[in-house]
Amino acid sequence: MNLTDEQKEQGRRNFLKALAGTPALAALGAAAAMQGPVKGGPVKAAVIGTGGMGRGLIAQCQKDLIDLVALCDINPKRRRAVTEMLIKNGRAQPKEYEDWREMLQKEDLEAVIIATPLWSHAEIAVGCLDAGKHVLCEKMIAKNEADCHRMIDAMRRNKRILEIGYQRYYNPVYQASYNNIVKQGLIGDVYFARLVWHRNANWRRKEDPPTPDFDPSKWGYPDWEHLVNWRLYKQYSEGLTAELGSHLITATNWFFEAAPVAAYATGSIARYNDGREVFDHVYATLEYPGGRAATFSSIESNAFEDHYEMFLGTKGTLILQNEVEVYLFYEGEAATTKVEVSRQADAPVADTSATRPADAQGRTVNAATTEQVDRNISYRNEIAEFCASVRTGRPVRCGPEKAMQSARAVFTANRAAEKGQRLALTEA
Amino acid sequence: MNNHTRLSNSQQIALIALRTLIGWHFLYEGYYKFALPGWSADGTRLSAWSSAGYLKAATGPLAVLFRRMPDAGWTTFLDGTVKISLALIGISLMLGLFTRLGCWGALLLLVLFYLLMIPLGGTQQPGSEGAYLVVNKTLIEAAAVAALLAFNTGAIAGLDLLFANRKERLAAKLRTDTAN
After folding, report:
1. Exposed (0-12), middle (13-18) or buried (19+): which is B40, by Cβ within 10 Å?
2. Closest partner residue to B95 among A21, A38, A387, by Cβ?
3. Strand runs labelled E in A156-274
């Protein structure tokens, strides 16, 4: 074929004209695939552990986000109670399993929520991750540092999401306090935080076994008492510092943007010398970089202060009380500014019900849109964002790396209390 | 000689750019409706799309007719038709394939959408980014599609040219065969 240069040029022009819209279609199509909606309905999930925490999380699962297809618990009475709750709330009846391994084999799941005793987190989470499931695991991440690493390795190996359930990260009160008060410098430089979780009650729980012949030994508990009160025994629990303190320490790590470097601690079984192995009174001091520190106390003999995180800065003091209220005291002022939270924008913002003008960047005043924050919002947001991460790949707010930082502080504080000395946090 | 040969290059480019942009608007609207229910990139749950809400909220001269459609069980049919039509029209306009048909389809849909909710209030409505009186962006887009039809942009650029060239070659061959 002999084409003249003119014919060749004409041919090229004709070709390009014929394909005029194709490059735009390809480019915009690629953009749509990346930025457009991600197809997918509710996340198919199961819950392992239907005790108090598991039941609480299940109650906050929204059916258009998460489809609870199965429940697993070694206690059939608890499983049944949750199933009845779901049916009563108009949800589909989930399948019930005693053994989580059997559940993973038989059910087509995308994700698993783990709310079992601390000592079992690593084994179950690694099993689920290795089975290709995304995991939302209740706090604390694991019973020891080696287990934390096992969970992180499994997450990375399987390229799955592992989120640890520190609900404060999903609490509008904490988000607003961090973004609009601490980060904006309203309380100045913070060198000290006081962390308190005080109760006036026995941690011991009373519950009858599901059947008279129920045998918990095959699940690693010598008797029913050790199963129902696992929090009181060192084989299964890291005590008050883990179950209560790790929440407060995680929030402090977040607000300090750092992790502790050393811990002093002491404690005692002061009030309830009933055979338990973990302290019922714990006092710890955590050292942070930059000469900063946090003290933590958890007692079971007085509930006057309940629980709070208090950040004492050079310009003011911020108190987050019971996860739902925030108070801001300016240095040198007698008046208190109560801080409320508004959802006026994409993210929660702090809203002062003013004893002084809201004059700082990031704060807004619009009392009309202030909404009451209830503690369940944190759990609801936590599960919703976990589902969103499963569907869209968006990073979770509290992955295992962050959770491990507070866990290491807990392990170190507990060992420091046992040894009666200051211990540095070192890599295992 | 085709009409488009009287247009300057910049006029031809402007018309094809307009057609491509309108085509993308239609295609993405169709794609988006197909992709629902789903999740936004920032993790927000997005409900399934349905025309029922728009039909129920219809205003204007044909409002009574539109409002009756969901009750008459038309929703599923209309949802599917609208989604497919938007996507096909979008592809047609972007690629310049069956361009006249695509333009007529686009014009029909845009007129229907306009009639569904004619802005007669003159003030900013909830969910709207501006204030409109009689003329809104839907009507302007319809006018732009009418311009594309008038200028027969399929004869300027796009896959329709392949068919046109093939037709011309066949006609030329026929003329040659007849002459012989």
Report:
1. middle
2. A21
3. 162-165, 190-198, 262-268
pLDDT at A359: 36
Supply the pLDDT for residue B171: 79
The mean of the pLDDT values for chain A is 90
Which chain A residues are within 8 Å of B43, Cβ to Cβ?
384-385, 388-389, 391-392, 394
Tokens representing A390 are 């499963």
Residue A348 vs residue A309, higher pLDDT: A309
Residues in contact with A285: Cβ distance below 8 Å, sequence separation at least 6, in sequence order: A263, A264, A265, A293, A294, A295, A296
Show Cβ contacts of residue A1 under 8 Å, excluding neighbours closer than 6 positions: none
Q: Order of strands across the sheet with A95-97? A: A95-97, A66-72, A43-48, A111-114, A134-138, A162-165
Residue A94 CA to residue A78 CA, distance in Å, equals 13
A333 Rama sector, left if φ>0, alpha if ψ -120 to 50, beta otherwise: beta
Minimal-distance CA residue of chain B relative to A34: B41
pTM over 0.80? The answer is no
CA B27 vs. chain centroid, Å, equals 8
Q: Measure the CA–CA gap between B148 and B135, rounded to whole angstroms.
A: 19
Contact B36 A37 (CB under 8 A): yes
- pLDDT tens by residue, A379-428: 999 999 999 999 999 999 999 999 999 999 999 999 999 999 999 997 43
